[in-house]
Specification:
Blueprint (H helix, E strand, L loop, with lengths): L2 H17 L1 H6 L8 H4 L3
């Protein structure tokens, strides 16, 4: 698998993970260290 394909795969996984309510609930305190999670509204 080429590096670009891996990036696309990892990005798609990250996007799906951010939509899971259980994943978001685990980081609801806004101190996860991941700006994508900490800056959600």
């Amino acid at each position: 698998m080429l590096l670009e394909e891996r990036h696309v795969h990892a990005d798609a996984f990250w996007q799906r993970l951010q939509r899971r309510l259980t994943f978001l609930a685990a980081y609801a305190n806004r101190s996860s260290g991941a700006p994508e999670l900490d800056n959600r509204r």
